Amino acid sequence: MSIFSGIWVPLITPFADGAVDHAALRALVHRYADAGIAGIVALGTTGEPAALDAAEQDAVLATILDAAQAGRAGADACAEVRPALPVVVGVSGNNTQSMRERIGQLNSLPIAGLLMAAPYYIRPSQAGIVSHFTALADASEKPIVLYDIPYRTGVRLELDTLMTLAAHPRIQAVKDCAGSLDTTLALIHDGRLQVLAGEDVQMFNTLCVGGSGAIAASAHVRPERFVALYRALGAGALEEARRIFHTLVPLIHALFAEPNPAPVKALLASQGLIRDELRLPMTRASEKLAERLAALERA
């Protein structure tokens, strides 16, 4: 089985009085490892990397990697050997050369892979996208997860582009946020790229048609239930999986009712796990949504 399967959490970056709260960050990694998640995405969009300077990004990644080395429980939670929790690192930008330099810095770290979206804002041609990702994959010693999220980047990865990129030995998976069932099905049928649902409410559909997993911000909350959903489908227990998913849908909708990660942070703060702090231009979830989230958590 590919490493890019199961439920992955795109980890938030907790703050306390304006600074990164490394103690809370470490505790979150341990929490999700114990819940049975497949891996962590560090410095993805949910982690507010655009609001972190270079030194802070490096420090956040160092804390996550150190905490992830403590591992995750297997079938026997008391087992002495706990394999390290895989960590994928988000690398964003629209300057190919500077991204290659960043990848060079990351090559020496014990990471499972890199998550990279199309160059944002400049909207390159599909040929430009192929050349961009090929140059980055050539520079990487780690596997690549493509991130197809056109509503953030302004350009989608067309199916022909994804099929071309799938030929590169280090491009191994895609975080699928494009909203095209035809593309999702074609990629799964082709089989060269592992397909991870990137829209949380679509994870059930994606898994049912053969996707390998999900990178789900909503799995910050009730992570055990998301893991149980994945395992139920893997075991062929469709009715149980459907039941679990329907209990999660209201929570998923609420967690994306306002810009991510504000709702996730509000709910984690209500549980005493972090402080409810974000950095501008992100702002805290509204009081009305926070009350709605708290009610859903109590339900």
Automatic annotation (TrEMBL):
Protein's recorded name: 4-hydroxy-tetrahydrodipicolinate synthase
PANTHER family recorded: 4-HYDROXY-2-OXOGLUTARATE ALDOLASE, MITOCHONDRIAL, DIHYDRODIPICOLINATE SYNTHASE
Organism: Paraburkholderia kirstenboschensis
Residues that, per the record, bind pyruvate: 46, 215
The encoding gene: dapA
Summary of the function given for this chain in its UniProt record: Catalyzes the condensation of (S)-aspartate-beta-semialdehyde [(S)-ASA] and pyruvate to 4-hydroxy-tetrahydrodipicolinate (HTPA).
Taxonomic superkingdom: Bacteria
Reaction catalysed by this enzyme: L-aspartate 4-semialdehyde + pyruvate = (2S,4S)-4-hydroxy-2,3,4,5-tetrahydrodipicolinate + H2O + H(+)
Sites marked Part of a proton relay during catalysis: 45, 121
Subunit structure, as described in the record: Homotetramer; dimer of dimers.
